[in-house]
Amino acid sequence: MGKNLFHRLENIEDVEDFYEAIDRKHLSQSLSPERPYTYWTIELYDKSNGIRGGGGLGVLAADTRRVAERQQVPFTLITPFYPSESHQTYLNFENGAYHEQVSYAQYGFNFVDTINIKACGQICTLDVVEKILGSTRILCITEPNFGELYSGESGGDHRLYQEVSLGFGGYQALKLVGLKPAIMQLNEVATFFAALARLDELASNGMDFYEAVVYTRKHTLYTNHTLVQAAEAEFSYDQFERYVFPNLKSKAVKKWLSDKFDNGRIRLSTVTIEIAELRSGVSKLHARVANYHDLAGNKVKFKAVTNGIDIPTWTLPEIVNYLKKKNILDKFDLPGEKYLENVDKIEASEIKALKEAGRAELNRVLSHRLDQYGNHPVIEGDALIFDFKRRFVDYKRPWLPLTNPERLAEILEKYNIHYFLAGRVHEGDWTMAEKLRNLLETVDKNPILKKRVHYLPDYDEELGRALSVGANVSINTPIVGLEACGTSWMKDIINLGILVSTHDGGVADCPSDSYLCVSGKTEEEEVESLYQRMEEAAKAWRSDFDLEILIKTELKNFVPVISGSRMLRDYLNYLF
């Protein structure tokens, strides 16, 4: 194994095992602490390290870094540090928010130095701060007026300022700490300006422009997390004249970029596709159906690298230990050598005992959380817990189980179920806020639902994990074809819960009989299928035989899919 990759590492045997499937000689020549894998993201959801994101993109970024640290990969994550955090409140059927000021110093980030970018004829000074965690580093740019994550309109000036700061400022920050990127992974188009900064540096330092383009393209991966290019915000040429062009030194790069505008407007995906030769989607289905086109009108092909989770972060420790003792998971959180045979040895009594431990953890978290009535919901006895926990947007359909309130109430009462809803409505999404209010008013009018349906505002990592370890059944009902991957359902499966889902996103990596699949040609048929599946799941928790079949089927199919170590290894194989 190359010394420049692993000279800091202690357990060389383990590392060599992990990289066995990779061209190790090539990899060790490509990656080193000074030439790390660089991962660019507009959001990071890692509250333990002081950064609160907005949803799945930030959670995925945190998991990817954790896996890289665990597997001792030289890895640098570059992201903004937002000095203001948004929190959700819910009172009297109204969605609200409050804002909390945070400081990087309070979370152990070290100040490195300042760098400058240009915007609107002014010099903007940004702080560079960092935290080193094993073989990985979180490198942030920030300033007091940087604002919140996703503040303002998606095509507005402030959003463009934040994205330019991350790209041009983050690239300067890398140089400031003595790093040169071996690869640049751009997560979503908001990070495009990092690759543009690299192209500009190469071209302005004497490299032939076309050679600079080729070099940048070959060392840049664009990872797309959405499905439809047309839904993306646009920027104007005037905005680029004020925020982007002043940061470019190369006239050739400026002309190249100017030529990408169409009628004075530009979508960042069009130029991100042009600047990145490597392109990936985040599930098999997503890579196949994502509707993106290059400037010539050709449909863009994406390599499928399905998202994964850092299993120890999201799983009850007792469950992790159990799965490893059974050799279902190996030391890298990958499937054990004979994991299919070992899954068959799982017993219902073991599943139930582990979920009881998870229920205790959930109740601990619920003891300092309030529902829509200002109460601390604590579920005791043999009641079952179903949940819907994910960002509240229309295509995820959080309202679907409440389509027929009387039918839902009948199911909840018959099987002694408590149903938890947890998810944030983005500020400014008035349509979804109104749908949430209507949904909870429906709950309030039905005495059974009022007792058994609990809405938990200010959804975050702590609550998401607690529901995964404590709930018996997870509901996932996106409109088929609109979910890129999703990872909440992965956390439910690894915590020995039953998944009730439509066949979409990463769930569709495996056959539809791998879980309790919700299907139908019309929404009416889907709703009926959902209620049937909910009853099947409830009955399974009362039948050892049925419970074992469902949990074993899920684990056999999805353990290889959900592993964050598998995801990182797939990326390394693709990139190097």
Question: How is this structure best described in words?
Answer:
- With 576 residues, the protein is an alpha/beta fold.
- The chain folds into two domains: 31-305, Glycogen Phosphorylase B (Rossmann fold); 321-564, Rossmann fold (3-Layer(aba) Sandwich), CATH 3.40.50.
- The chain has 23 helices and 19 strands.
- A nine-stranded mixed beta sheet has the order 5-6-7-2-1-8-9-12-13, sandwiched between helices. A six-stranded parallel beta sheet has the order 16-15-14-17-18-19, with helices on both faces.
- Strand 12, helix 11 (284-289) and strand 13 form a beta-alpha-beta unit.
- Helix 4 crosses helix 23, helix 5 crosses helix 6 and helix 15 packs antiparallel against helix 19.
- The two termini are 15 Å apart.
Which structural class should the secondary elements be placed in? alpha/beta
The averaged pLDDT comes out at: 92
The number of E-state strands comes to: 19
Q: How much beta, percentage-wise?
A: 15-25%
Percent of residues in helices: 40-55%
The separation of the N and C termini measures: 15 Å
Q: State the CATH topology of the largest domain.
A: Rossmann fold
Radius of gyration: 24 Å
Query: Based on the structure given, which CATH architecture of the largest domain is correct?
Result: 3-Layer(aba) Sandwich
- The outline comes out as globular
